[in-house]
Amino acid sequence: MLATATAxxxxxxxxxxxxxxxxxxxxxxxxxxxxxxxxxxAWVVASIALSVSAYTGLFWLVLRNAGRTLERWRKRSxxxxxxxxxxxxxxxxxxxxxxDPFAGIARRTFDWMTGGYWTVGAPxxxxxxxxxxxxxxxxxxxxxxxxxxxxxxxxxxxxTGLFRLLPESVVQATANWLAPQSCLGLLGxxxxxxxxxxxxxxxxxxxxxxxxxxxxxxxxxRRLADERTAAWAVxxxxxxxxxxxxxxxFDRGIALFTPLLLYLCERLVTERRLRFALxxxxxxxxxxxxxxxxxxxxxxxxxxxxxxxxxxTMWHEVxxxxxxxxxxxxxxxxxxxxxxxxAWLWSGLDPFRLYQVVFDSHLSIHFPFWPFVxxxxxxxxxxxxxxxxxxxxxxxxxxxxxxxxxxxxxxxALSLAHVARSETGRVWxxxxxxxxxxxxxxxxxxxxxxxxxxxxxxxxxxTVQTSVLRVLVDAGVPPESFPAFEIxxxxxxxxxxxxxxxxxxxxxxxLQPAAAGEEAQMTLYxxxxxxxxxxxxxxAFVHVAKDERDQERIGQHNEMPYRSKYPTTCWxxxxxxxxxxxxHISAEASPGEYPVFVGLYDAQTxxxxxxxxxxxxxxxxxxxxxxxxxxxLSKP
Length: 636
What we know:
By secondary structure, the chain is of the alpha+beta class. The chain folds into 2 domains: 2-95 and 213-470, no CATH class; 480-633, Immunoglobulin-like, CATH 2.60.40. The protein contains 27 helices and 17 strands. The strands form 5 sheets. Strands 8, 9, 12, 13, 15 and 16 form a 6-stranded antiparallel beta sheet that branches. A 4-stranded antiparallel beta sheet has the order 3-5-7-10, with no helix packed on it.
């Protein structure tokens, strides 16, 4: 009774405190790590609440009075409920942030800031060359590809290949349907139809992989516990906030490997069949080829297997199993190297060099240590559902030691290691099946009244978090949401054009003086002049040069306009784009006035767009020399 009361407290107190802060606390700090938006239409919030409640109630009815082994009708009902309910919940939660959820999912897939895998993978023609030279090219890719292996990008390569096999009419229709949503990518709107259509394949793979987590989750818990527990785990999984909040992010699909690994480990330990060690290693190899974020799954599998071996083996048998254990370790290591060895033999990919590139990029991120030791797991807890985490941490040690220890110890080690510095609960969604699995084992043993309270808390948590939290805050800005700007009267107006057909104009600019060692603020006012969309996502550069030769510079800033959130491919004709930039001025710069060059270039080819200017502005080196110079002040 005391343990149950403790579990209820660990479910209720954090959940109610967090929900209260989400709704009432005015600041974004301490326990609230993401932006909030209370403008979600009331009908959407009501629909989410009703759907979550109905889904939970139907699962309760289906599994009420169920035995440890489920009848066929119950199993079928669980499958139908999870598939239909899971899809509806994802759609409704996406509607809370996107007026058109289908367009929103497509934009997130194309958007180079929220994934960028389409940008890198869809146009690949030579897969062997792409994989083999990935380490040297990774730093030129968008941030997610720079910090991850090539696996996820190859999903879109496969999509392009698939659409090349389909009838041209189907491919073109798909591409035409998707093209209006593609401007947030970096490939432009005039890419070949199969490349554009590959995004649909990526969308379907992402959603399918997120849904397929239920299958190995059920298989694992059926062996560890029973079918009733496994069914409850499937039902609870769709209720976790992260399941619906991160639609379009492949991190949801990485969770597929966690229960699959644990299922294979369970069979290895209980059946003593070494082939499961080899299969577990191969699964781990595939997971790490998709993302190095899956590496901690090795510790999860190891801890789980050791505890289960102790639980299922008499002490005197351990000595006789030494050879078996060593063979299992060797076979699992062989499996873990399988995909990487194949990639090395086939393409020359150096996995160690790739890991160094990725690891160095992570270590270059500056984040404080101790706050994130707490914030990283807290973010995961909120994505997994605080009531489920409460059940896991309160009672999991007694009723499901192996998965509880694997979850807690790995999470603590990962948090303290400080290598995943910029990662969030989104990246660690592969821990959620562990939480759900333990919570389901605990849940089925609780009295009906306690179950009701836990489910009610989960309904409230999921409804509130998915209605007000905005997790894709770094996404680009779609055209209809871009704010309207006007050129201020005090801006210096110029007559310039960029690109061969003069599609882009720099209409005006503002320069603010700065002292050496400080940042100079500049605002560039761009406008699209062409009737047709701009086919290339140009990067704009600002050079503060020592002289008009532009060979030596005291300041430089290269970035796509509007803090990279509004690529030129999204610009609308006649729309003014106010592009504010902060250019760091060298601390060695002497006081005086310096020439400023502005230009555009294609980041894919590094080729500058042609530039044209009318006096007093001048065209030099395929860039515009502004008629006003930047004034550098004396150091204070």
